Amino acid sequence: MFTDAHCHPFDLARIAPHAEEDRRRLGVAISANACEREEFAYNEELARKAVSDNCSKVLPCFAVHPQMPAVIIENGSILTQEELEESIGTLHKFAAESRLAAVGECGFDLFNSAFKETEAVQDWLFAEHLKTALEFDLPVIIHARRAMHKIFASAKSLAKCRAVVFHSWPGTLEEGKALLRKGVNAYFSFGNVILNGHKRAMRCCAMFPAQRLLTETDAPYQPRKGKSFSCWEDLPLVIETAAALRLEAQSEVTNVKELEDAIEKNFFDVFQEPKNIQVKNK
Length: 282
Prior knowledge:
Elements: E1 2-7, H1 9-15, H2 19-26, E2 28-32, H3 37-52, E3 58-62, H4 68-74, H5 81-96, E4 102-109, H6 113-116, H7 119-135, E5 140-145, H8 148-153, H9 155-158, E6 164-166, H10 173-181, E7 186-190, H11 199-207, E8 213-215, H12 235-248, H13 256-270, H14 275-280
Parallel strand pairs: 1-2, 2-3, 3-4, 4-5, 5-6, 6-7, 7-8
């Protein structure tokens, strides 16, 4: 089974209206991310239908994306502390109601000056996300751009989390190994970046232990070169490329099917179907 540790079905559906049909046809289980109530409601409905139709799972996640404060300000809106607290309250509510498979994506984005200006807000948001993840024993999905120093500063807290998924792993091989040594139950997710020639990501994908790997599309936001968006049809090639990289590096688990199976196991070790979804469909 193909698995997608990080995607945005709501946004993908606006570009590719038949995306859910494609997902079911390919048999892809997904961790479905949302940062707004409308997105989450869409993902949750997909999850309920997947259960009732006994098809590949949709596992809803929720968080305040670290880019959101800067994007809201850039669009001319004023972001108040009250609004931030309301969003965190929504996260906590969903977790308390057993509606989440993970907290995410959350983290840090210091890619440009606009994002850097909201660093203090991002610090507060990340701390609140970790509190919720720890209170409800949920995995965390991390977004980190030019922010690995922030991740290492939070390593003690991350080591308390049930699992930590690094979406489109942004670090080096040595940084990943260091997080594991610090006791972080880390999983490193890779998508089309390894098809697009990102050498650092390719090396990490080749060398990390197979039991630490996940695949993703970040659909629709991480397209292959020459494509306008990413989708679930990219996953077979991602797996094939990962296996080829590992074979060249002489890593363990280089057979395509064995690697697919190992990544599927990792996915379901990390993500569990929310009890709320299970109960409503019995």
